[in-house]
Specification:
Elements: H1 6-15, H2 24-40, H3 43-74, H4 77-85, H5 89-104, H6 107-124, H7 131-155, H8 165-177, H9 180-197, H10 210-229, H11 247-263, H12 265-294, H13 299-324, H14 330-350, H15 354-382, H16 385-425, E1 428-431, E2 434-437, H17 440-463
Length: 471
C-alpha cells in the first residue's frame, strides 16, 4: 500500500467540520496541495519524481561532458564510440542479475547507494587522462544505473494507488526524456562559466575546464537525488534484504523471472510490443539523416525537424493518456498504439515531402509514447512485488537490445535493399499516374513498420479478453 503521506492528513483536516475556521490563504494553499496530490498520486512519489528530474537533468549534462571529454582525450569518433559502448555492454550481461538483487535488497537503500556511487565515480572523471579510464568509469556508472532504474520502477506501485499508475508513469517519462533540451542548454551555460572560472589559479587543482564543471554539477545532482530518496518510506518486504548472495539461488531467481515472462502472456505481449515499438522509432535516428537528404530533400535541418516532430508527438501522447485511459481499457490502448505506430511509420516513410512526413512522425511519436507508458503500467499491475525488479530489469535489457539493433543493424540493411530495388524495379514503382521512389532507406523503414505491425497483432492476440479501465 502507498505510504501514509502527511499531505493527505492536511487535506483531511481541510475537509473536517472545523475547516470553516481556516483563513482564505489556508484554503487556497490546501486546494493547491490537493491539485498536486491528484497529479502526483502522493507526496512520496512527488519526492521520487523530483529526484528523477534532478538526476536525469544531471545525467544528460554528464553525458554531453563525457562525450566531449572522450573526443578531447582520444581525438576521434572511435574514442567516443568506445566510451558509448560501455553504456550498452553491461545491460546484456548483468541486467538480469541486477533485477534479482533489486528484488532481494531494500530498494530505497539500493537507489540511495547507486546515486551516491554514481556521484563518486563521476567526481573522478576530470582526473582521468586515458580513453580506457573513461571506458571503465562509464562501465561502473552503467552497472549502478542497472540497479537504480528497476528499483525505481518496482517501487512506484507501492507509492501510489493503482488508478494513478498511468499518470505517474507519464510523469516519469517526462522526467527521463523531457530534460534533454534543458540539459543541453545547461551544458552550454556551464561551458561559459568554466571559461570565467579558469582565470582563478586557486581552482586549477580541480582541473577546471568545459567538461569538468559540467561533471561536478552532475555529481551534485546525484547527491541531491540520494538525499530526496532517503526521505521516502517504503514498506518492508518480508524475506528480503539478505546480506549473503548465494550464486546458485541467484541463478535460480534469474530463471524464475524469465520463466514468468515466458508463461505469462500479458507480460510477454507487453514486452514484445514495447521492444519492437522502440525499435521502429529508433530506426528513424540512423536512417533519418540520409532519408531527409535523399528522399525529403531537407538535409540536416530537415532531420532536426523530424526529431522535433517525434519528440513533440511523444509529449502530446503522454499528456493525452490520462483522459483516454478513462474511456478505453489500457490493454486496448496498448495494442491500438502499437498497430497505429506501425501504420504511421509506413505512411511517414512513404512521403516525399518534409511537411507531410513530419505530420505522420508527430502521430508516430504520440503512439510510441503511449506504448511506453501504458506498457509500464500494465506490467506494474500484473507483476507481484517479489518479481517486479527482475521483470523490469529484463525489460530494460530488451529495450537496449532493440535500440542497439535499430542503431547498428538497420543501416546495414540499406545497401542490399537498395541494390535489390535497383535490379528489380530500377528504384521506382508506378501506381497509375503516381510514381514512388524506392531507395534502400525507405524500404528499411517499411520493413521496420511491418515488424511493428506483426508485434501489434501478437500483442492483440495475447491481450484479448483483458479489459482494465481506470475510473
Amino acid at each position: 500500500m502507498p505510504e501514509r503521506d502527511p499531505l493527505a492528513a492536511q487535506l483531511e483536516q481541510f475537509h473536517a467540520p472545523a475547516s470553516h475556521d481556516l483563513t482564505t490563504d489556508q484554503v487556497a494553499e490546501a486546494l493547491e496541495q490537493r491539485r498536486s496530490l491528484r497529479l502526483f498520486g502522493s507526496g512520496a512519489f512527488f519526492r521520487l519524481w523530483v529526484a528523477q528530474v534532478v538526476s536525469s537533468l544531471g545525467d544528460w549534462v554528464g553525458l554531453f561532458a563525457i562525450l566531449a571529454l572522450a573526443a578531447r582525450i582520444g581525438g576521434g569518433p572511435g574514442s567516443v564510440g568506445l566510451v558509448m559502448s560501455a553504456r550498452m555492454i553491461p545491460g546484456f550481461f548483468l541486467a538480469s542479475v541486477g533485477g534479482v538483487l533489486v528484488d532481494r535488497w531494500d530498494r530505497k537503500r539500493v537507489m540511495v547507494a547507486c546515486d551516491i556511487g554514481r556521484g563518486l565515480v563521476l567526481a573522478t572523471l576530470p582526473f582521468i587522462h586515458t580513453v580506457w579510464g573513461l571506458f571503465l568509469a562509464s562501465l561502473a556508472m552503467e552497472v549502478l544505473s542497472l540497479l537504480w532504474s528497476p528499483a525505481k520502477d518496482a517501487s512506484v506501485p507501492n507509492l501510489v494507488e493503482a488508478d494513478q499508475l498511468t499518470t505517474v508513469n507519464s510523469l516519469s517519462l517526462v522526467a527521463a526524456y523531457g530534460t534533454f533540451v534543458p540539459g543541453s542548454l545547461i551544458f552550454a551555460f556551464l561551458a561559459t562559466v568554466a571559461d570565467w572560472l579558469g582565470h582563478y589559479h586557486a581552482l586549477h587543482v580541480l582541473r577546471v575546464n568545459h567538461e569538468s564543471i559540467a561533471i561536478y554539477a552532475d555529481v551534485l545532482t546525484f547527491f541531491t537525488s540520494a538525499a530526496l530518496i532517503s526521505t521516502l518510506t517504503l514498506a518492508k518486504r518480508h524475506g528480503h534484504d539478505k546480506g549473503r548472495i548465494d550464486l546458485t539461488a541467484t541463478i535460480s531467481e534469474v530463471k524464475e523471472g524469465w520463466q514468468f515472462i515466458r508463461t505469462n502472456r500479458v507480460v510477454r505481449a507487453v514486452m514484445i510490443g514495447i521492444g519492437t515499438g522502440l525499435m521502429g522509432g529508433g530506426m528513424v535516428i540512423p536512417l533519418g539523416p540520409t532519408f531527409s537528404k535523399k528522399v525529403l530533400h531537407g538535409g540536416p535541418a530537415g532531420f532536426g525537424l523530424l526529431l522535433t516532430a517525434l519528440g513533440t508527438g511523444m509529449a502530446v501522447g503522454v499528456v493525452s493518456l490520462s483522459a483516454i485511459q478513462k474511456r478505453l481499457p489500457r490493454e486496448r490502448i496498448f495494442t491500438i498504439s502499437v498497430l497505429v505506430g506501425g501504420v504511421l511509420l509506413f505512411l511517414g516513410a512513404s512521403m516525399s515531402s518534409l511537411p507531410a512526413a513530419m505530420a505522420f512522425v508527430v502521430f508516430l511519436g504520440a503512439a510510441g509514447g503511449s506504448v511506453y507508458v501504458i506498457g509500464f503500467t500494465i506490467l506494474q499491475e500484473n507483476v507481484e512485488d517479489e518479481l517486479r525488479g527482475r521483470i523490469f530489469a529484463a525489460l530494460y535489457t530488451l529495450i537496449r537490445f532493440c535500440l542497439l539493433f535499430a542503431l547498428t543493424v538497420t543501416p546495414l540493411l540499406v545497401s542490399p535493399l537498395d541494390d535489390a530495388s535497383k535490379s528489380l524495379v530500377h528504384r521506382r514503382v508506378h501506381l497509375g499516374s503516381l510514381g514512388i521512389a524506392l531507395p534502400g532507406e525507405r524500404l528499411a523503414l517499411w520493413l521496420g513498420a511491418l515488424i511493428i505491425l506483426a508485434a501489434g497483432l501478437l500483442a492483440a492476440r495475447a491481450l484479448r479478453g483483458r479489459q482494465t479501465v481506470t475510473t
